[in-house]
Amino acid sequence: MANSVATENGKPSQTNGNTGRSIIIIGALFFIFGFVTWLNALLIPYLKIACELTTFQSYFVTFAFYIAYVVMAPVSTRTLNYFGFKKGMSVALILMAVGALLFIPAAITRFYPLFLTGLFIMGSGLAVLQTASNPYVTIVGPAESAAKRISIMGICNKLAGAAAPIIIGFFLQLEKAEELAGTTNEAALDEMALRVIPPYIGIIVVLLILAFWVYKSSLPEVEAEEDDENAVKTKKKVTDYPHAILGVVTLFIYVGVEVIAADTIIDYGIFQGFDFETAKSFPTGTMVSMIVGYLIGIVAIPKYIKQEDALKVCALLGVVFTLIAIFTSGFISVAFIALLGLANSLMWPAIWPLALADVGKLTKKVSSLLVMGIAGGAVIPLSYGGLAGVWDKQEAYWIVVPLYLFILYYATAGHKIRA
């Protein structure tokens, strides 16, 4: 364990060197779960063809992955209480490797439920990882600059997200898979399904190496700041903090719209007339947009703009960009779906510190609930998939407009509610 000196409230006070090493390790974690998470954008059209699925069925990729956060978030808290932050993150990485391992028999058998099981297990590992890493970055330094630190982590995450479609797309060869859409050639579909095995073997190896690195590292344990004595007597339950509960709802909504922007864009690009070869690069545009937003956040928060004001701006941009995407077509429409990455970029870094403000010793419990909110990535994109089947893939984007308006409410008033 790294050298640290306990302050009066029990929160470790680290040297700059130790803090820097800790941020590097957490940054590596954000990179790997960004890489794994944003692969879903490729898996949706890939498994749709390989496993002969409908559009609605293909969106169970996101459902299986993100619903794990609901199931595992309560377990995450107990896991971290038992193992501690550092060992708990190692356990989570090993669990993710087990989920990735299931992709091998799933590809051999072309059995869609087995793919979904692997995604669920990987999501379960990420639930533990997120529960530990996000509050760690939030409380490792001054609260007013928490969004800046999370923005740095977001860059690591989205750089991985930008790289994932390019790297894994090379193995999956979706441009060739387009010819197999609707085919009954079982041998060709079997060959296509096997393409997923080599990259996932690489993912397994990286996850295990990272698990060992974290386990052997000097990453310190970080405890939540204790509440003052009067607050402990009067506020002992999470429900005593309405701003935290609303924060969970807001995070649920935010993750849903973020996943829609990133994971539907390949399918939507094809709907707008682009081929697979071109469309597979569209998620990279979404990730680059998010990175630009994070860079703005690093420079501007809190020096030029407060966290809650950044959230307001992002919510408004989300509404405007969505409406432009709905009422235009072709490249412009797809471009504004990609630009939703910019609108979404500072939401995660702003929502976490706003929701964790003043919760004191309940930080882990609130963090667990916030991680459960990531299940918005399961429910909301699946709803989009259902609407896309009833209306079309462009009109279905109407679902995100009221969701962005709720985020605007939280940024304006919701985060201030304390009674």
Automatic annotation (TrEMBL):
SUPFAM superfamilies the record matches: MFS general substrate transporter (SSF103473)
Domain Major facilitator superfamily (MFS) profile: 22-419
Alphabetized CDD domains for the sequence: MFS_FucP_like (cd17394)
Entry keyword set: Cell membrane, Membrane, Transmembrane, Transmembrane helix
Bilayer topology: Multi-pass membrane protein
Cell compartment(s), UniProt: Cell inner membrane
Primary location class: membrane
InterPro entries: Glc/Gal_transptr_bac, MFS, MFS_dom, MFS_trans_sf, MFS_TsgA-like
Pfam families: MFS_1
Membrane spanning stretches: 23-44, 56-76, 88-105, 111-129, 150-172, 192-215, 243-262, 282-301, 313-332, 338-357, 369-390, 396-413
Annotated protein name in UniProt: Sugar MFS transporter
